[in-house]
Amino acid sequence: MSRLSEGGLIDRSKPLAFSFDGKAMRGYAGDTLASALLANDVRLVGRSFKYHRPRGIFSSGSEEPNALVELRDGARREPNSRATVVELYDGLSAASQNRWPSLDFDIQSVNGLLGPLLGAGFYYKTFMWPAALWEKLYEPLIRRAAGLGRAAEAPDPDSYDRSFAFCDLLVIGGGAAGLMAALTAGRSGARVILADEDFRFGGRILAERAEIDDAPSLAFVERAVAELAALPNVRLLPRTTVFGAYDGGTFGALERVADHLPLPPAFTPRQRYWKIVAKRSLLCAGAIDRPIVFGGNDRPGVMSAQALRTYAVRYAANPGKRAVVFANNGYAWSAAFDAAEAGVDIAAIVDVRPEAPPIQLERAKRRGVRVIQGGQVVATSGRLLSSVTVRSATGEEKIAAEVLAISGGSSPNVGLTSHFGGKPVYRADIAGFVPGACPPGMRVAGAARGDYSLARCLAAGAAEAAEAVSELGFSAYATPVPQARDNAITVTPFWHVPGSRGPAFVDLQNDVTAKDITIAHTEGFRAVELLKRYTTLGMATDQGRTSNVTGLAMMAVLTGQDVGATGTTLFRPPYTPVALGAIAGHHRGKDFRATRPTPTHDWARAQGAVFVEAGLWLRAQYFPRPGETDWLETVNREVTATRTGVGLIDVSTFGKIDIQGPDAGAFLDRVYINTFSTLPVGRARYGVMLREDGIVMDDGTTSRLGERHYLMTTTTANAAKVYQHLEFCLQVLWPELDVQMASVSEQWAQISIAGPQARAVLEQVVDGLDVSNAALPYMGVAQGTVLSGVAARIFRVSFSGELGYEIAVPARQGRRLAEALMAAGAPFGITPYGTEALGVMRIEKGHVSGNELNGQTSARDLGLGRMASTKKDYVGRVLSQRPAFLEEGRVSFVGFKPVNPGDRLRAGAHFLPHGRSGTTANDEGYMTSVAFSPLLGHWIGLGLIARGTERIGESVRAYDPVRGGDIPVEICHPAFVDPEGERLRV
Amino acid sequence: MRSRYSVFSLLANALTGQKGWTPAWRDAAPKPAYDVIVVGGGGHGLATAYYLAKEHGIRNVAVLEKGHIGSGNAGRNTTIIRSNYLLPGNEPFYEWSMKLWEGLEQDVNYNSMVSQRGVLNLYHSDAQRDAYARRGNSMRMAGADSELLDEAGVRAYAPFLNFDDARFPIKGGLLQRRGGTARHDAVVWGYARAADKLGVDIVQNCEVTGFIRENGVVVGVETTRGPIRAGKVGLAVAGSTSRLTRLLDLRLPIESHVLTAFVSEGLKPLVPGVVTFGAGHFYVSQSDKGGLVFGGDIDGYNSYAQRGNLPVVEDVCEAGMALMPQIGRLRVLRSWGGIMDMSMDGSPIIDVGPLPGLYLNCGWNYGGFKATPASGWCFAWTLAKDAPHALNAAYRLDRFRTGHMIDEKGVGAQPNLH
Ligand SMILES: Cc1cc2nc3c(=O)[nH]c(=O)nc-3n(C[C@H](O)[C@H](O)[C@H](O)COP(=O)(O)OP(=O)(O)OC[C@H]3O[C@@H](n4cnc5c(N)ncnc54)[C@H](O)[C@@H]3O)c2cc1C
Q1: Cβ separation of B88 and A131 shorter than 8 Å?
Q2: Does B41 contact ligand 1 (Cβ within 6 A)?
Q3: For residue A666, pLDDT beyond 90
């Protein structure tokens, strides 16, 4: 065990058992998986992406490039989990990934031998010969070798929540700057949210041995958190990553509610996705250590200086027996001193600068730490790091060490600031990019802005927060800013050790080497985005947090441009990867979208109905009876029963729009091609409306219920679309019209009864209403009550072609009405039917429906052209007169029957003249709808074919190669049943 | 002399530390005048220049790009290629594009990773099935491949989909096995390198800021690198089209909308080809690197900002989970937006005019990547011959006046619905 004997923010009274690659280990509450692995002497944790090189833990945060593991098992398996941010829990199981057969021995590490061949751009230059082998051979091999972890194979068993929050100030990051900011804003009374991705607030303070107000800085953190927790206007969100900045001050955030537990407790989501709308935001996300590039810089044991300090100080885990520190800046020195004080054996500090600041030298001397100034690491050795070769003025020296802690300076965490496209700006004095233009309302404080002193972070957090909330009218207290001692820290830009030995990695996760950068330069991929795409620098799961700046700085050296002019790539949301399931929340499985049952749904289910999705609706498709073996048998029975007796169907799904006002008639005249202002009260009329571009949008019957009162019905599919269109017309096109409108689709249950006996049934449910042919003729509308006092509207309309009525009652009475009608109809053998039978009857009748109103047909194409009024203007009139709409060869709507009556027709078949080949040039149209007509005893179809109405009686081919069909069909009139409509009027 | 990629050159460079390569294309400085200027260094602009040089011998050509090549939609899209169109104005064009894809790598000597692993469009109702049958038949009639799968067929091809507790059960799908993906950046670089080799100047960091007109004729452009004259000026700037034509006081039947794309962390192989959901806006494929590449609907409002918002992010993830509930714990690595040139009928414009000296290539909606080869090929033809080829004859600008719209989806002149 490499657990240091004392210190650390771990709870030694709470040991936790866990396993890695099946091996049992122990850690403590407060550990991350990474710190626990280090404390258990595990140094090899993964394999790299391309060359499958052995890798160890590099960082202590979410920027981790190496230590990706498969966490948990079975359906909860989570590939690519960063061990550095996984909070340890009892029973945790993790496995290494992207290796075979084992982490220790990975066959694909032979890729490393091919390194000289596999440089940047290799794939683009090869695998082209012969062409056919790409999909068959090369690509499958590449795909198998690529990828990282394995996805789970079963549905994710956990649940996810979605929450909304609103605040005046969102503080992102709860380190020194963030805590002071939240305190300052919180004390002013502003609504504050403080979010931090870590499970503990404090940021770097947790890993540094610093003092605030002459006491350990941890005490400040504890005080601050306690005060914030007590403020009612402050919400603390630990374990919460703000992952993206969006329009309108909206931020996406992910709270890991139960990831630190073996399983989410009952009624608790695994994670919660927050949408936070903040008037102002303050980014205090700190900075991360970036590496220096040199040969052999990827051996397990090479880690960032900040990581060494964090593991030693915060987790009391010693990453290795002896450590060498290699740096170009002062933080690495303090990191070394902190680690040393925690119990790590620091063999030497190697600094590339010829002369380190005297104060640092003094401190090193005091601690007895050896210093090599003007030194560079030129090689490393050991499969797991065992020694480091340092070159300095005095020559080369090999130093035994298990840890090499490196720091090439800090990179501010600017990620969120560039989500709106703001380009980070280079600051030479800190050799790093600081935020440029930020999203509206966002400020930045602390290390995220390049301020690396504790004192200045505290002060800036307070000042920025005070300014932000003052803008909103709060008076921020002049909070006394706690005092901290400040180390003046200097950095000398240094990116890459020239002439170092062995592959030198820039991007550890994607295996991008210094040589790849040179190749990109040679081949002209010099712009940062081209460099990134050509080499894959920064495209791994860490978005290049530890590699981008170094990589582009190395390119800058090659091009002779300065780093600032070379620029940097932009970070894109999410800041760290976010689980898809969390964003989806409860919208999965059957709850993916709402389900709309009709008012008679339960009744229909009790009748044994089979249901079908119609948009969000579930409708009864057919009602099989015992003994019926196939759906067609059932449907034939339902159709026959309706045509010979009476049938019943719930048609509540049609859109219903209530339209009132003095200008209602004029309004309808403008949206329909035919006229409604002249419709008498108590009558219904079939209407067709066009889109602006002259194509049919929808059809349906609209009734006049009163002088200024109409009720429009739309097709089920277009209910929302038509309503939207009407709103647009009223609000944008004709605001002068005095018309009010409301969707009442949900308010009314509507049941249709049809068939020769329909009237006899209806008479039994109405409360004394005269529904005789004279009193309620075809297309008549009556209002009254049914079932002893239930308000009802009765429309004598028909889709099936039979004598029919649609009876509308308040939605809650729908089931009662259905049952009453069934009872009343029992003597006539009333039969419930579903959408299939409805479809058969409308096809027999030759009515157009969704398949014909497909957004590509004009009224003229559908044979409805004559309905169009020539006396008025209406939406779509002008554009429907364009030349293409009037062309000779356009399709028209006709019926089709098989020449051989036994042939089955298929919708989607295309029409060809006999004797011509099946090519686009010979395509004359297609079948839109088909049905088996029990009345006629054969299949019938509707369709669109060039000049169809002139070709009645002609035979053509119905060509359906995707289903192997090619049969002769005869063009006929679309109304197969009762073309004169006599049955409707009896 | 630019290196030709071969087994020999690869091995030679492996032995010499990869030092023998040369720039893939010259970083050209603009000359004062060209025969043809193509504005826009995306896939379409570069392909146009390549085919102008290769097919028509017109080599005094410049491609002007405001940033670096491929920085627009060419480098932001989800790389699906397919020729599964319905309407006669479209299908032969896209099938020609597919044929060009099939020979592209050998043609330009660059591995663009054209990968014909299949494109499967799912259907969830009988009406959708019949609509796909109609489409599949159209494809066959244009010489493309298509297969109408039933549910069992889909299970065999994509067993990882949710067949068990789906809100909208999968009933089958339309499969085009020749469809698939290509590596978008490599397409850009391959065309750039091949065009450059034929003498085309690829001028980066050269933004067109205005047009030079004489007697109503477009005779050149103003750029951030100075004025450049040209016999013909072709626009291939995709989402920026309306911004450029505004400089000519031209209003086109195009709106700009943002579309977001997503990539997950890398995974071992899971999704073989491309799958699109028929009951929500979602499509997914897996890159050779292992990331799931997916997307959905456009945001729905007009925008030039290359970023979308959370409602669509949610919509896409919900549909993803509905289709593949095992991806709940996989993580979205990155998302980004691109600006789509959405036309009034959802189909593109490749045409002469509307001003003398000017040529248009735009209106690609969210689907212009697959069109890259044919778009370049047809635009080159149109520029060279001053008339459209039969393949792009339907893509005339005046179709909105004459009513010859090519509206695959049937949603009409509402660009945010295409
Ligand atoms: C998220 C997303 C997903 C997509 N998915 C797919 C898909 O799966 N399949 C598919 O087929 N299509 C897809 N597309 C669409 C496809 O990417 C585009 O239709 C296609 O790339 C457009 O052609 P292009 O490559 O020439 O455009 P671009 O690459 O956008 O090229 C236009 C170029 O013009 C440049 N430019 C603009 N203004 C100027 C100026 N004033 N001066 C000089 N240069 C200028 C731009 O910088 C840009 O480089 C998708 C698009 C997006 C955004």
Answers
A1: no
A2: yes
A3: yes
